[in-house]
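Hi all, long-time lurker, first post. I run a small reading group and we've been trying to get comfortable going from sequence to structure in the token notation. Rather than ask abstract questions, I figured I'd post a concrete chain and ask someone more experienced to write out its structure so we can walk through it together at our next meeting. Sequence below, copied exactly:
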Amino acid sequence: MGKSFGPAAALMSRLKYPQRFALITLVFLIPIALLLYSFLFEIGRQSDFSQKERDGLAYLRPLMELYKHTNQERLLGIAAAHGIATSGPELVANQAQIELDFEALMAADAKYGASLKTTDQATSLKSSWEVIKSNPADPARAEKLDKLAADTGNLMTLVGDTSNIILDLDLDTYYMQDMLLRLLPEARDRLVEAVVLGDRAITAKAVGPEERARISLAAGLLKSGASDTRNGANTAFNNNPIGNLRPQVETRLNAYLAAIDSFAATAEAELVRIPSGTDAPALTIGAETWLNAANRVLAANYDLWTGAVTPFDDLLSARINSFTQRRNITLGITSAVLLIVLYLWVGFYVVVRRTISTMERASKLMESGGKVQGSLWDGGLELSSNDELSRSAAASFSKIAAAANELNTTIDERTNELTEVAAVLAHHHDGIVIIDERGTVKVLNGAATQMLYTSFDVAVGRSLIDLTRDQKVQELLRAALLTPGQHQAIDLSINNRVVLMVAKFIQVTENQLTGLITMQDVTEVRRLQRVTQNNTMALAR
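-- Answer (accepted) --
Happy to help. Here is the structure in token form:
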């Protein structure tokens, strides 16, 4: 314990109390600061994440207007082909609106294009529209408008990806983004596909089996998408903590679903269920009726999109405000706690100073021979603090002073004894090793280090078996452990020398045995014994 805390004690001993308090406070503040930084960084990251979603919504608004008017341009073209009187002025007005949509889109792209990585695709859309606009009589105009609408949808998907909108994990905002970025655009694409298929049948005044199947499939996909839209919206409504979605979206959603059902019913009744063959009746539905049904769906679709994007943006704004509020509360509480801690540190320092002052005065009084009586010192010196340190110090000073000399005397005596023992061990010719019950070396003298060909620092803490590299030592120690108080001896060969090793374990405490190992170089003795033995055997022959 002393060695472990020695550096800390040495550092603290060099510092004054204010410096100690400052150091301890700094050490505590470092992890707190790291945690606070991590928290604020995460709050900032989530806030930036949501703000980028809002940037994406801001970009999607003019893009959706362009998408809307591009699809209307396609349907108005179909109406114009049928000679519907209102289609001409509406085409002119719609094209002017597309120009305004591109102006708004390019302005949004100038603001958000770099972060959303949309500039190339937005510029390409603008170029495609210029080509379409420059040649109104182009036979491939319809296909180019379809491609423009598809490219607009692809740009919407890109915005959803790069603005983090599709990564939103809250249930309400997740299902809202799914409606805005996937379900409603898909429904518009399927609607245009169904309108084009129906228009071909109306133009031909007949519908074949293949066209009937394709129209039925398109209408079915519209209804399936509408069902997914309804289910997702209900999930968002039921998991909307601030409750802003249902009031603003539900009415528009119902109108959209009704328009889908009406369109699908018209397709089924007028185009899908009409008998085929030579005796099949001619189609009775007109192009204007068909296009009006489609326009109602398209208008409801856009109305739902615009009605849903605003509360979605409000949810993101509320989330950002929540992050900001959490950050401010955390900073406020942290600042208040730090001020309280500082106040308490100052109070603690004042108390310590009083205690130290009391101890200094008590020390001087001890030097003069004063003694403690109750809560007063002889001479009228009163305790300045009632804390544990002050009272314990006051009560212990006299005992410490009395015990100090006795303790120092005892220490000197024991030190002298240990010095004598160390001197004896150091000059003893036999090797002496003290081990624990596991055979780990605790102490050894110089003769033992020479016999084992090692050093004190290397040997202490290692197993005696490892030092001798002889398994007979393990058997010796095991036998000695089984017979505490009795000597067990073996001869070892260590570096071409014969060493007599005697082991004995002594019961130091009730649960502790200490081993005493003596080592004696008996190389010459054993040699003489062998010579004597050989001579004796020779004489006997």
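A couple of things your group might point at:
The beta strands are 372-373, 376-377, 431-435, 441-444, 488-494, 497-509, 512-521.
The mean pLDDT is 83.
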